[in-house]
Amino acid sequence: MRLPRLPVVLAAGVVLLTSMPTARAAAAEPSFVMPSPYVIAIDPGHGGSATNDPTQLWDPGVVVGNVMEKDITLDLAFRLRALLAKERVKVVLTRTGDEYVEISERWNRVHASGARLFVSLHVNAFNGDPAINGATIFYPKPDSLSFAQAINAGLAQTLKRYQIADDGVAAKPELWVRSDVPTATVEPGYLTNPREAGLLSQGDFRDAIAMGVLQGMLAADPQIEQVKLQIIHAEAAAAAQHQAEVGTTADAARTATATRWGLILGAIVVLWVVMRIAIRRQAGAPHLPQYRRRGYRRRRAVSRRS
């Protein structure tokens, strides 16, 4: 018996709906490796406040009037950290609040961070002669000289419009004697100089200091820019993967819906075919004529009387 065309078409639709390819999900998953960020350590010099506890150490640094070096250095560190974050750099601060931290502990934090560059932020002072001014960069060892020079060049550029004297770089071996990465101590001005003290209280001047240090870091190690580009590319790949996962989820939902409707249509097709076959069989089945049945009954009745 040949099936009608409609069941055949519906059956083909069931097969099509329930066998939608899912290869797109596998093909839409890009592979990428997120690179490790470049790490830089920043030391906001000094820190801590006086308390009633005589055993509690504190170190305000240079103090002129109500202005304390420890507050300036912490603010500079935050500004520099914000700039470095835009370069995809991981920044580690030796302190993030007004706390006293021993020099040895500061270095332990720098060393544990895996930092590749290290900058300690301070402001200068010269008691007895308020005319002394200028910016100076100190370095502890010869292998940090080129880094100090790069920082000095960056500051000279950004502080030029403020007419800050460039005092260059100077060796100071007693600073950061345990340093094993390029290290520089930045002294961008004198708090004991009235003009520079006024500049150090201004946000734009502090921004210029942070920008100068940043430019020096970028010049000192091109790897900072290279790692930044690698991270940007990896972030783009991650975004693409996210979009692919969203598309895969939508495909899966559509496939599940199609499968569900395919099963429903399949059941309808099967039921329809079964009913048609049953109807045809019933229509073609032979029936005993009524007159024969009545004759048969009469013959039985006659035989009983005889």
What secondary-structure arrangement, pairings included, does this model have?
Elements: H1 5-18, H2 23-27, E1 39-44, E2 63-64, E3 67-68, H3 69-86, E4 90-93, H4 103-113, E5 117-121, E6 135-139, H5 145-158, E7 166-171, E8 183-187, H6 194-200, H7 203-220, H8 223-284, H9 290-305
Parallel strand pairs: 1-4, 1-5, 5-8, 6-7
Antiparallel strand pairs: 2-3, 6-8
Helix pairs in contact: 1-8, 3-7, 5-7
Structural write-up:
This protein has 306 residues and is an alpha/beta fold. Helices cover 54% and strands 11% of the residues. The chain has two domains: 5-30 and 231-292; 39-221, Zn-dependent exopeptidases (Aminopeptidase, 3-Layer(aba) Sandwich). The strands form two sheets. The protein has a six-stranded mixed sheet with strand order 4-1-5-8-6-7, with helices on both faces. It has a two-stranded antiparallel ribbon with strand order 2-3. A hairpin with a 2-residue loop joins strand 2 (63-64) and strand 3. Helix 1 runs antiparallel to helix 8 (223-284) and helix 5 packs antiparallel against helix 7.
